[in-house]
Structure formats: structure tokens, C-alpha cells
Design brief:
eight-stranded antiparallel β-barrel; about 30% strand
Length: about 240
């Protein structure tokens, strides 16, 4: 049985690395609420005219967070390695320099940045504006792979069109102890509050399978270090 489990995990890992990976960059910052409309207008002008082909940009407003994560907004860029490399290699033109000069007038002190990769993304074709982001520290490769295989199996067996789930690696930044992340996306705030509970109640076999499969994961190797809720303001 152990040989079969090991083989399945190996095939799962090889499947992940044989696909073109999505990379992301995140920038968290604070602005006054009265300046949000101006900042969105500046971002809209910049991303509409200077965004690199193959890169998608998102602006989120942070709804709920802990006191240490004192930011109001996030800008996220996603794309493959070639697209993001082109974005960084193209160099700032005069219009881009003017954009950052204007943006600096609205940024408060603090904030953070980081980058990473997406490993799993369920319902990637749907935009889920309300999202709960969990940053975790994981120190076991084997538990990580078993957990990912469990996620993939459960999402395939019990698909949901009312929720998106994203999981991946943190390369640098974001949080001093953060190594991985989970994003749960919902179509409305009401779904964020109640849809997971409703799904569990209406799908008892899902809970049985989930509890059974999670017994193979050493959860002591995972530690959540941050959790916050955000909502999508605009996508470019």
C-alpha cells in the first residue's frame, strides 16, 4: 500500500512540474479611503496602456486583517515566467516613472511585497471577488505532497462552482515565516460566510472522505501565520 501511495505522490508531483506554472507578485500598501478613487484611476491608466502581454493585474481592498498586517490594498500580478520576466526586463519608461511618482503621493509608510508560484488552482476560469487568504509555514515535503494530493482528489470528486481554491509556494517576502499559501474565493460575501458550511451539511460523504484522507497528513508540520479577507476592486 505504501508503494502505491508513493507512486501516486510521485506522479502527482511530476504532473505539477510538467505543466507551465503560473507565477505571482504581490504588493501590499495603505492609502486613505478618500484617495481610493484617485489611486484606482491611476492604476487603470497605467495598466491599460503599459501592462505587459501575458500578465494579469488585480487590485484588492483588504477587508479584515490582524493588527500586524496594517495595509488597505494589494496589487497582484500573475503570469508565466516569460511574461513576468519581460515585464521586469522592459525597463521603466517616462510614463511609468511618472506613474510611480504620482502613486508615492498616496502611499503611507509600511506595507510589504512578495512573490511565489501557483501549484493548484480550482475553478481558475471564474472570478471570485471575495477571498480569504491564509499564509502558512510548512516544514515537511512529504506532508505537503500528501495534502496537495488530497486537495486534488477531493476537488475532482466533489467539484464546486461556487468556490475557487488556489494553493502554492511563497518564494520570498509576504511574511517572515510564510512558506505557502491558500486562497479561498467566493462569488459574494454571503457565500464567504455560509457556503462552506452548507456544502459540508449537504455532502456528508465529502466530510467522510476528507476526514479519512486527512489522517495521512501530519498537520503538526503546518502552522498558520496569517489570515485575512480581501475583495476585488478591479482586474486588468
Amino acid at each position: 500500500m505504501k508503494k502505491i501511495t508513493s507512486l501516486l505522490l510521485l506522479l502527482f508531483v511530476l504532473g505539477i512540474y510538467s505543466q507551465e506554472r503560473t507565477h505571482w507578485q504581490a504588493y501590499s500598501f495603505s492609502i486613505d479611503g478618500s484617495d481610493e478613487e484617485t489611486v484606482v484611476s491611476l492604476l487603470d491608466k497605467q495598466f491599460s496602456s503599459n501592462k505587459t502581454e501575458g500578465v494579469t493585474a488585480y487590485l484588492y481592498s483588504v477587508m479584515f486583517s490582524d493588527s500586524e498586517f496594517d495595509v488597505s490594498h494589494q496589487v497582484i500580478f500573475t503570469g508565466n515566467a516569460d511574461a513576468l520576466n519581460k515585464m521586469w526586463s522592459s525597463g521603466p519608461n517616462l510614463e511609468t516613472q511618472l506613474f510611480f511618482s504620482k502613486m508615492n503621493n498616496y502611499f503611507k509608510e509600511g506595507g510589504s511585497s512578495g512573490n511565489g508560484t501557483t501549484v493548484l488552482n480550482f475553478n481558475s476560469e471564474t472570478v471570485f471577488p471575495f477571498q480569504v487568504v491564509s499564509i502558512v509555514n510548512s516544514n515537511s515535503w512529504s506532508s505537503r505532497d500528501i495534502m496537495r494530493n488530497t486537495m486534488k482528489t477531493l476537488n475532482k470528486k466533489y467539484p464546486r462552482d461556487d468556490r475557487g481554491t488556489i494553493h502554492g509556494n511563497i518564494i520570498s517576502g509576504v511574511h517572515p515565516q510564510g512558506t505557502h499559501y491558500f486562497v479561498s474565493g467566493y462569488k459574494s460575501y454571503g457565500d464567504l460566510l455560509e457556503s462552506d458550511r452548507s456544502f459540508r451539511i449537504n455532502n456528508p460523504n465529502y466530510m467522510k472522505d476528507r476526514l479519512k484522507m486527512n489522517k495521512d497528513v501530519d498537520w503538526d508540520t503546518f502552522k498558520r501565520v496569517r489570515k485575512f479577507t480581501r475583495v476585488l476592486v478591479k482586474k486588468w
